[in-house]
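Retro notes (design track)

What went well: tokenization of the new backbones is finally stable.
What didn't: we kept losing track of which sequence belonged to which structure.
Fix going forward: every design gets posted as structure first, then sequence, in one message. First example under the new rule, 320 residues:
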């Protein structure tokens, strides 16, 4: 191949920076126009549960701020990983966001991850609750001590949300340290999980009491133990795990985007999220959900929060 002339070599030197500049300008222009169409809001659990309720409430509050619709897309399965996989399959353009739960973020600790969490970036924590054990109105278990004594003698079935989740971690701890025989029965759909206890198929439900507050108010379910370090303001009469020397682990929900999303787009989403979750309507939703008073954590602190939480979970996992 013949050598290029000085003029030809100069044209290459000039042309490459021009391409890079055009790409950068195009990306910045796209970000400045964001959003220009609907944004899919993924809820990685089925309808009828707390994640669905909180997600829909937040999407509704964010719509007038972003001036586009945020249709909620329920993608249950894999302890929340099916929804996360859907987010990962799309482009990092901000037109797909997800409400990930602590159950999914626990999977790297419990050894069940299908996806690398580094592929996603959190925008903030939108909800925190104490998880617990609940029984049906007709349950023979009067209180936690009654349930504990029975579970030490025989198998007691517990409906929960999936292996590798918070329920798996905490009840496995009790089986090791309290000599209980809790038998975990997973359900991807919250409604099926609840129905299995109301119908007597399972004896106990592991969930956040706030997610089933309507059933508690209606006398169909009652909490017997909360995994918490201090009394829950929504359920002050319910005993807490710390009293018995058992660990606690907060249940939380976070907003995520795909890694590689333009900083300007993330800024727009973060601003909208902050405004939405501080609205009186969303705060009312959190109150109804039994959320803890200091539930909201912004993007500047969310990374440290999740790292600390995962370390706490690892300590529970490793306790022998």
């Amino acid at each position: 191949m013949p050598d290029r002339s000085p003029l030809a070599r100069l044209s290459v030197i000039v042309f490459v920076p021009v391409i890079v500049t055009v790409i950068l300008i195009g990306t910045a222009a796209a970000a400045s126009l964001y959003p220009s169409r609907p944004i899919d809001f993924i809820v990685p659990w089925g309808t009828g549960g707390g994640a669905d309720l909180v997600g829909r409430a937040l999407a509704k509050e964010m719509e007038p701020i972003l001036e586009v619709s945020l249709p909620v897309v329920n993608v249950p399965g894999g302890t929340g990983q099916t929804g996360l996989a859907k987010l990962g399959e799309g482009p990092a353009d901000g037109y797909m966001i997800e409400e990930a739960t602590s159950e999914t973020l626990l999977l790297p600790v419990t050894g069940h991850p299908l996806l690398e969490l580094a592929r996603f970036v959190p925008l903030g924590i939108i909800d925190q609750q104490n998880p617990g054990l609940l029984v049906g109105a007709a349950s023979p278990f009067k209180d936690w001590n009654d349930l504990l004594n029975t579970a030490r003698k025989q198998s007691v079935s517990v409906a929960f949300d999936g292996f590798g989740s918070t329920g798996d971690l905490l009840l496995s701890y009790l089986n090791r340290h309290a000599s209980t025989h809790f038998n975990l029965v997973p359900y991807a759909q919250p409604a099926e999980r609840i129905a299995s206890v109301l119908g007597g198929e399972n004896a106990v439900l592991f969930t956040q009491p706030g997610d089933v507050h309507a059933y508690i108010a209606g006398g169909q379910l009652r909490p017997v133990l909360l995994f918490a370090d201090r009394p829950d303001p929504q359920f002050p009469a319910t005993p807490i795990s710390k009293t018995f020397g058992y660990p606690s682990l907060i249940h939380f929900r976070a907003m995520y985007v795909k890694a590689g999303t333009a900083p300007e787009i993330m800024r727009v989403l973060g601003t909208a999220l902050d405004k939405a979750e501080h609205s009186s309507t969303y705060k009312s939703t959190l109150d109804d959900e039994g959320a803890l008073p200091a539930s909201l954590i912004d993007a500047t602190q969310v990374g440290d929060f999740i790292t600390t939480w995962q370390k706490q979970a690892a300590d529970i996992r490793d306790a022998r």
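Added context from the reviewer: Residues 39 and 95 are 4 Å apart (CA to CA).
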